[in-house]
Specification:
The chain has about 220 residues and is mainly α. The chain contains seven helices and two strands. The chain is globular, with a radius of gyration of 19 Å.
Amino acid sequence: MNFKDRLYLILAGIFIASLVSCNLIFQKFFSWTPFGLYTFELSVGILPYPITFLVTDLISELYGKKKADQVVISGLVASLFVMVVVIIANAAPSTAWSPVDNQLFEKVFGLQGAAVFASMVAYLSAQFIDVRVFHFWKKLTKGKHLWLRNNGSTVVSQFVDTAAVLVLLCSAGAIEWNRFFTLLENGFIFKVLVALIDTPIIYGVLYALKGKIDIAPYNED
């Protein structure tokens, strides 16, 4: 296996691990006030999620749209598999000496089905939008202005993702509707900030890989 194939597997592994972890930890919320300017109220599930968009942008740039779509589908399959495992684990009765009893396990993972369904609908919409907007700008600019397609695709897709998952979770009763706009604003602003931060990261990765991997052509079908 050559370096390019190994890197693809590593990026795919990071993508899938980030996606699955989002769905497992989403029920804990935290507040954060950077520099005292703005207070975020966010699910901890949002922390690894922007990494998925960074990875799909890297794969799109290096390997093309088809490979990016393959990773998106792989992430969907992995998340559905984990959901089935959690449902089975939730149905298995705990022993009397189990450190985590049925009630605690149900409290932590009981919303897993609704959460994964909401996440997957939002995920598929957002990731496919991200890949296609990225390649639209790449083709339009003839492979120039990486910062534009990186940020443009992520901002659009992150708004779709944030809005979709909140609508579905509120509809399922997992989150109260009166928190919808606050969480939408918090989540979207946070993701936009992360998108801006990951721009120098993607430039740095591509610079480090210069001469090792050829960038996918901008005019691919």
